[in-house]
Amino acid sequence: MDERPLDGSADAVAVARSFLLAKLPELGIHINDELDLHTDMVVAETESEYRVDFGLTDSEGRSHEGYAEVANGEVVFAVIDGRTIHSSY
Which domain of life does this protein belong to (predicted)? Predict the structure, then answer.
C-alpha cells in the first residue's frame, strides 16, 4: 500500500472509494458503474483523519448510505446501511 501521507480530502475520498468498491460485492451490493457511488460530504477530523460520507444506488435500484473513517491514508472502517466493515490492514 502507498504509505505517503494524505494530501487533503481528495486523497481521503480516493482511498475510501477504492476500499468501498472492493468491499461492495462481498456485501452482496452490486453497482452498474463506479459513478453510482458518490461522496456526500468529507469532514476533516484532524490533519490526517477524515470521515467520508457516501451514498449509492445499486443495480437493483436500492439506495444505500454510509461513511468511511480514513486515518493516515488507510480506511480504518466503514459503515454501510448500519453494517460495519473493518479494514484488515
Answer: Archaea
Q: Taking the chain (89 residues) in consecutive chunks of 10 residues, what is each chunk's mean pLDDT?
A: 62 96 95 94 93 97 97 96 86
In a domain, 54, yes or no: yes
- What's the sign of the alpha-carbon dihedral 50, 56, 84, 26? negative
Sign of the torsion formed by the C-alpha atoms of 1, 14, 33 and 60: positive
Model confidence, pTM: 0.85
Tally the domains of the chain: 1
Cα 14–15–17 angle (5° rounding)?
65
58-74 as b/e: b if 16+ CB within 10 A? beeeeebebbbbbbebe
Instruction: Name residues whose C-beta falls within 8 Å of residue 18's C-beta, 6 or more positions apart in sequence.
Output: none
